Amino acid sequence: MKKREIEYFQGCLVGGALGDALGWPIEFMKLNEIKRTYGENGLTHLVLSDDGKAQITDDTQMTMFTAEGLLRAESRLTNKGICHAPTVIYFAFQRWLFTQGYPKKKDIDFIYDGWLLEIDRLFASRAPGNSCISSLLKDEKGTKDNPTNNSKGCGAVMRSAPFGLFLDKDTAFEIAIETAALTHGHPTGQLAAGSLAFMIAEILEDQSIIAATFNTIDKLRNENESIECISKLEDAISLSQSDLSDVEAISMIGEGWIGEEALGIGVFCAIRYQNDFRQALIASVNHSGDSDSTGAITGNILGAYSGIDCIPKEWIQNTELIEEITQLANDLHRVYEDGDEWWRKYPGY
Ligand SMILES: [Mg+2]
């Protein structure tokens, strides 16, 4: 299957980072403000910071820690014979929380290691989502049966692409949902995360984006409380075939602050501009809502579909942490390697 080649893994994670970086400067701007600042067509180029790089935010940071957590869970499973992946990814999220300026948790102080913590740039705080921060600060872990809040914010779906790269589609769906439940108690927030993971896995099996969306809807029909996600995915498909402008269509899906809307906007943009990565990302961020998260999800989907070679080179060159993000994509693609070196890179906790 050609889609299993490494360029699609790289496209998925790098694509997400570019959408995040494109949308970040306008995350909190209304559309009229975006147009006033950047012109009638909105923001169509990366905004570079003082060091010449466009900045990624919590969406990409947490995606990186999700990927790291998955690889460390695999190390545990291979070496210990047993592993609960969401627990190992929970430790990865605690490392992310530490990068955001919060103290280490004393009862799990052994988990604060690994190569991501050696990257100074990852310690930047870029408007991290409140549901993620507040739930990770608690002593107890959220689960599907014992949620610690009722959030359906987009903070779970925006970080969930790596599940679809690393696991078969049904396992990706389940583990993405269980991992989402660590920080998001509402079923819709969890199902949006499972949906993105499932859809990425479908795309890697060579499905078109629209077929992957239909198959995700079918998958959701077997789940309780999935109507909100199903409805936004159906909207995304029908609106992508309509005569409505991008802005009009996106406004009918929502603003993307909540999981199912962010997913719907990402799917809409990826279907409508499936042959034009640049235009898909531009459409995905120029609205009054959560531009970096809708950009990240669009980039994940379309990057997995079209591969790294279809992503504008100058955007890749001008965005921070691309080398590290590519490294994670390569490691997710790689077959597990036994030995001390791999364990040192991805210890099983
Ligand atoms: Mg963000």
Mean pLDDT: 97
Number of discrete domains: 1
At the fourth level of CATH, the homologous superfamily is ADP-ribosylation/Crystallin J1
Name of the CATH class: Mainly Alpha
Bound molecules: magnesium ion
CATH topology: ADP-ribosylglycohydrolase fold
* Percentage of residues in helical conformation: 55-70%
Count the E strands.
Answer: 0
C-alpha geometry: globular
Instruction: Return residue spans where pLDDT drops below 50 for at least 5 consecutive residues.
Output: none
Structural class: mainly alpha
Task: Please describe the structure with a list of short key phrases separated by commas or semicolons.
mainly alpha; ADP-ribosylglycohydrolase; binds magnesium ion; ADP-ribosylglycohydrolase fold; single chain; globular; metal-binding; 17 helices; 349 residues
What is the structure about, briefly put?
The chain is an all-alpha fold and 349 residues long.
Structural description of this entry:
This protein has 349 residues and is mainly alpha-helical. It has helices at 6-23, 31-38, 58-80, 85-99, 130-137, 161-166, 169-180, 187-204, 209-221, 227-240, 246-253, 259-272, 277-285, 291-306, 313-317, 322-333, 340-345. The longest helix has 23 residues, at 58-80. The model has no long low-confidence stretch (mean pLDDT 97). Magnesium ion (MG) binds at residues 57-59, 126-127, 292-293.
